[in-house]
Give the backbone structure.
Amino acid sequence: MYAIIDNGGKQYKVSVGDIVKVEKLDADIGTEVSFKAVMIAEGETVKTGSEVASATVKATVLAQDKYKKIIVFKYKSKKNERRKHGHRQPYTAVKIEKIDL
C-alpha cells in the first residue's frame, strides 16, 4: 500500500515506514503532522479524486535541517562581471506512520 501526498507544490510517493524529506514545515521534532492524500493504491486498486477526499497520511517529524550547499555562479564573458552565491534549501524529515482512508 502506498499513497501520493501533496506538500509545498510537490508530490511524494510514500508508504508506511518511509522517511521522506519534504519542504520545511513549522513543526517541532517529535510532533505528528498530517498530509492530504492525492492518490492511494492498495494492490491492484487505485483510489483518486472524491474517493480520497477525506484521506490523510500521518507522519512524525524527525529533523529540521538543510540540504547540501549548491553554488550559483553567474558571469559575463569579457566584462569582468562575476557573481557567486551559495544556497542551502531547508527541509523537514518525516517518518510516515499511518495511511488513513
